[in-house]
Design a protein that fits this description.
The structure holds two protein chains of two kinds. Chain A is mainly alpha-helical. Chain A is 73% helix and 1% strand. In chain A, helix 1 packs across helix 2 and helix 9 packs across helix 11. Chain B has two domains: 125 residues, no CATH class; 154 residues, MetI-like (MetI-like fold). Chain B is mainly alpha-helical. Classes of the chains: A mainly alpha, B mainly alpha.
């Protein structure tokens, strides 16, 4: 009761502020918290007619079914491996770009290069994947270029072996430039005096990178790495469903694309929700783990 | 200042190497789009025979664009997209301003609770299927509102604006309040003019987001006359059903030749607005990341 009285007094004191918050709260409740509550259908046998709470409760049936699913291993493997490859290749790339940009002295050249490599970030996923597909089909540019080295043309979009490399390399194209901004921002705060002092101490260029630039980047790298590890079981389905086809499901199908197919296309609402929930919980676990590890080793954490 | 440093003999070579590496990466990023641009202005017959990279249009012609423009889907798609971008961005900005202002008010009794309510959604969400069912149960299937309402606020953008508002001198707001201004006046007459730059950045983010978005349309829109441009594009580029677009071309063998060309042309038609504004506004986009980065 005390809370309500305090709240009432506050509303009387700032009526406009509460009025302003009304639509915002309505949005968050309706489109974020209602779906969160709606995830309980993972534990029942949801049918649209019976409704969320009228359907029969089945406990962990769908989760157990997922663990026994013939695709379970394939989905876990693909989701995990795409992330591991992306961490190995996609995570260091923007850091390297930022360091190189920091070393670049020609200002106009630098901004031209930045403009070019930030651009793919603003082009739609559909267009980017359309270009990727066009380049990778049998008559595509990739085959033309490989042909110079004597390779036979292949329709790479239909090759199981090719899906992950295509996915990872095109990720570089899409995101590496843009992701470097955050590191460039971190470096813009580094005082020139540090570099001058290193000069006086006789540091060469490489040593300055190692002893001035990298330490300045370290806090940002750690935070980004924690966030990245927290997402180690997440692959968005947008790019996957644009690039895969039944021939490449074996190496391309990930948890989210499976949820989309089973849930939206085949209307197995409860099962797909259970798979999605399993994925979310797994991710949250990884985030906590990464955060804990970081706090132990570097005394940095997200919260 | 740098000139006063001793120049080492290896320095020039190193500078050159760095410039070349970054230049190559920039070309890797830009070239695919240039390729599509050149191909879209090429002659379909020459284009089909051509192998390897393109550095200029083959026998410059706008034939492909004429064929692409004769496809009604491209026009309805454009119209739908413009509608969603305009209405969606307006709603986004309105809601984001309200939310950011309220969350920046530390004197509010609900300050912590409200912030928690909002930030929590960045870490956890209901997932694809429950969200889909919520929208469906609201009766928004095949309604363009389904492309606008579920994405009315991007929490990330809200935090960016909240950070900008929090950075304003509190004394300014205090003195306005002493002069008898209520919160509506304070927000629109005092706070907003001071965070104009941030809002401009958010308008760009939201507008580009709407322009490029296709997943919600794929989930919620079944009626083809309401398809946004990106969905039409998906049909033509990915599902390869193009060929609704090439119906106006007469015989079959010619149709095949145009198929590829029309793909390039529709890609350019859909991307041109972004490509035109991007170079001029790039620095504002970058600024948005910087504001966000300070917080993160």
């Amino acid at each position: 009761m005390k809370v309500l009285v305090k709240l009432k007094n506050d509303i009387v004191k700032h009526p406009w502020v509460y009025l302003m918050f009304l639509p915002v709260a309505a949005f968050y409740i309706l489109f974020c918290y209602v779906p969160m509550g709606g995830a309980v259908i993972a534990f029942n046998d949801y049918s649209p007619r019976a409704g969320i709470f009228g359907s029969e409760w089945v406990g962990f049936k769908w989760f157990i079914e997922f663990f026994r699913d013939i695709y379970f291993f394939r989905l876990m493997r693909n989701t995990f491996l795409l992330n591991v490859y992306d961490i190995i290749i996609g995570f260091p790339a923007p850091i390297l770009i930022a360091i190189l940009l920091n070393e670049l002295r020609a200002r106009h050249y630098k901004s031209a290069v930045q403009t070019m490599m930030y651009m793919p970030n603003f082009i739609s996923m559909v267009v980017l994947c359309g270009i990727i597909t066009d380049f990778c089909i049998t008559e595509g540019v990739v085959n033309d270029v490989l042909g110079w080295f004597g390779m036979e043309p292949v329709n790479w979009m239909m090759e199981q072996m090719a899906f992950k490399p295509i996915f990872i390399i095109s990720n570089l194209w899409q995101y590496a430039g843009w992701s470097s901004i955050i590191y460039v921002a971190a470096l813009s705060g580094v005082s020139q005096e540090l570099y001058d002092a290193a000069d006086v101490d006789g540091c060469g260029r490489v040593k300055k990178v190692l002893h001035v630039t990298l330490p300045a980047l370290m806090p940002t790298i750690v935070i980004m790495f924690i966030l990245r590890l927290g997402n180690i079981m997440t692959v968005g389905f947008e790019k996957v469903i644009l690039l895969y086809n039944p021939l490449t499901y074996e190496t391309a199908d990930v948890i989210s694309s499976y949820v989309y197919r089973r849930g939206v296309l085949e209307a197995n609402y409860s099962y797909a929700t259970a798979v999605g929930l399993f994925n979310s919980v797994l991710n949250f676990g990884f985030l906590l783990l990464a955060n804990w590890m970081s706090r132990r080793t570097t005394e940095q954490s997200l919260w | 200042m740098r000139a006063s440093c001793k120049r080492r003999p290896g320095d020039l070579a190193a500078n050159l190497l760095i410039a070349v590496v970054l230049g190559l990466f920039a070309i890797f990023c830009l070239y695919p789009i240039l390729y599509v641009l050149f191909a879209s202005f090429s002659d379909p017959r020459l284009l089909n025979q051509h192998t390897g990279l393109l550095f200029y249009p083959l026998d410059f012609t706008v034939e492909g664009y004429t064929v692409a423009a004769s496809y009604a889907g491209v026009w309805t798609g454009y119209l739908n997209t413009i509608l969603v971008v305009t209405a969606g961005t307006a709603l986004n900005i309105f809601m984001t301003i309200l939310g950011a202002y309220v969350l920046s008010r530390r004197d509010l009794y609900l300050h912590r609770a409200a912030n928690l309510l909002v930030v929590f959604t960045m870490f956890f969400n209901g997932g694809l299927v429950p969200t889909y069912l919520t929208v469906k149960n609201l009766g928004l299937i095949d309604n363009r509102l389904a492309l606008i309402l579920p994405v009315a606020i991007s929490t990330w953008n809200l935090i960016i604006l909240r950070t900008s508002i929090e950075a304003l001198p509190q004394s300014l707001i205090e003195s306005a309040r002493i002069d008898g201004a209520n919160d509506v006046v304070i927000l629109f007459r005092i706070v907003l003019p001071l965070v104009k730059a941030t809002i401009a950045v958010l308008v760009l983010y939201y507008a580009v987001g709407h322009w490029n978005s296709w997943v919600n349309a794929m989930l919620y829109i079944k009626d083809r006359s309401k398809y946004p441009l990106q969905l039409i594009l998906r049909e033509i580029l990915i599902e390869n059903t193009s060929n609704a677009a090439t119906q106006s071309v007469g015989n079959l063998s010619e149709l095949d030749q145009y198929k590829q060309l029309v793909k390039y042309c529709t890609t350019m038609i859909a991307t041109a607005p972004i490509l035109f504004i991007y170079p001029f506004l790039q620095k504002y986009f970058v600024k948005g990341v910087m504001i966000g980065a300070v917080k993160g």
